[in-house]
Each structure stands twice: as C-alpha cells, then as structure tokens.
What does this fold into?
Amino acid sequence: MLLSENINFGLIRVPTIQLVLLIGFVFWIFVMWYEARKDGFDDERFFDLVVVSTISAALFYYLFGLLYTYISIYRPNNPLLSLSYEVAISFLILFGAFLPPFYFSNKRQWSIFRIFDIYSLAFGFFLVFVSLGKYLIDGSMNYLLIAVLTLAFYLGVLRFRGYRFVSGLVFSLFSFYLAVIIGIFFKSWGYLLFSGALFIIGLLNLYYRSKKYMNTRNLPKEFIELVKRQLIRKEEELQKEQTGLLKDDPYLQTGRTESNSEYMDEAILEDTRKTVSDARLNIAQTMLIEVKKALAAIKIGKYGICEVCGDPIDKARLKVYPQATTCLKHADGE
It folds into this structure.
C-alpha cells in the first residue's frame, strides 16, 4: 500500500479514492474536449453535452444510492442486494453518461457514433487513473495490470482513430475490451453479468453501425481513380506543409531568446507569427485526417457514402471537396 485510504486536510478526512476520481474526472473532461475539437465539433455546444452527461451520471449515482440504502434497510431479502454494488453503480454511471448523446445527436444532427467514440476514449483514460489509484491504495497487482493494459489500448486506438477506424468502431472495441478485462480479473457472477451486457452492447452497436453502411454508391471507376490520385497528392502536400510549419515555428528558432528578449515590438511580432503558424498547422492536421479517412473509405468500398446518415454524397460535392465523408446536411459534424 503506497497511499493511505484517507487524507487529512486539517480536521477534514477525505477518502483518497475520491481525490483520484476527481483528478480522473478532470482528465476525462480534457480528453472529451480535445477529441471533440479534433473531430470538428463546436466547443461550446459539445461542452453543453459534457455538462448534461455529467449531471445525468451523477443523478443516476445518487438515486441508485438512495434506492440501495432503502432496500438494505426495509427490503433485506430483495434480489437487487445480491448484485455487487460497485458493478451496479458503474453500469448505471456509464448508462447515465451515454444517455444524453441520443438527444443531442438528434437535435443538432451530430453523429451518435462519433460521440460514443469520443466518450469511450475519455472513459478509457478515466479508467487508467482509477485503476492506478486503486493499486496505490489497495496494492493489488490486478489494478496495475488493468491500468497498463487500458493505457496501451487507449494509445493503440488513438493512433488509428479518425482515418482507419470507421466511426462507432472505437465504442464497440471499448465495450469488448471492458468485457474481457472484467471477465479475466473479476470472477463473481455479478461482474460476469456486467461483462456479458457490455459484450452485447458492443455487438448491437456494430449491427446498427453496419446498417448505416448498407447503402452502396455506384461511382464510375474512372472517377474513383481520379479522386484517389488527388487525395494521395493532397496527403503528400499536407504532410510537407506540416513539416515546414513545424520547422518554421518562431518559438523553436535557434537564438530566439537572445535576440528577442529585450525588444517588445519583435516579441509582439513573434507572438503574432506563432498564432498564425499554429492556426495553419491545426487546419493542415484537420485536413490530413479528412484525406486519410476518405482514402480509407475508398479502400473499403464506402467512398461517397455519408458516414453519419448513410445516404449518398452528392457527386458535385465530391468533385469540389474530394475528402468529404459526410453529405451537406451533416457537413457541420465533420
């Protein structure tokens, strides 16, 4: 045991695991914001979704706690008490957090599959913190292994998400991963029930995701080949642009501190150049992801199909914007 179960702040004693959960929650919000911004979601609107999801999860946690306490006192023979409290509360927190995206995706024409992918990555990072905290408090090697495996899973998925994985696949992979981890490290029937539920949820998500891709787009082979050449050329140009922007970053130039430290005008000019450079780099990175996604769609035979609604993308849009993976109706969610 590396950490005590409680930390004293004067006369106040706080359970260490609560501090771990708080730190994990901060990083959960950061990952949600970062991934949503990378996917092109509106920051303020997506933050609204995060807030509502947090409130929903907290509400489910609070209400179940009241229900469990009531049953423990007045209905001690209720079958609900045979379930592990940690299992039940974890499932309800996940359910509460994943419920609001259905409303927001329908209201704002967002892809529910993309939102679930972002949530899965955020919860994966949150699980790393919780597992490490449990290891430091309880000293169980199982929690350390879970933290290491989850971090490896997170980094592996992060590497390919956006251009090799279709939207929705990360959520299913995360569900399958949790099901396997629970089945390996937790043997009680309550945990195994939770594991089975996660596995079924992952399969259902794949089923509904595949239905979105049931449509096929009969584009001329010559058009596909032309678009593919354009995208490959665009990919090379964007990679060169990224390299050049990083090389010309004013903050990374040799001797900048010696030459600029005493000159206010030069410092202001340097900051302006840095802002412009970062903006151009962000645009190039976003476009590169879009190009890679379009190339991946060509490879699997799904180019020209909106990844949000599954309808064909107008050919005129593809001619003007060959890296488009959504129709005009859902272009804001790209």
User: Anything to note?
Assistant: Residues 264-299 form the longest helix (36 residues). The chain has twelve helices and two strands. The beta strands are 6-9, 12-15. The CA atoms of residues 116 and 201 lie 12 Å apart.
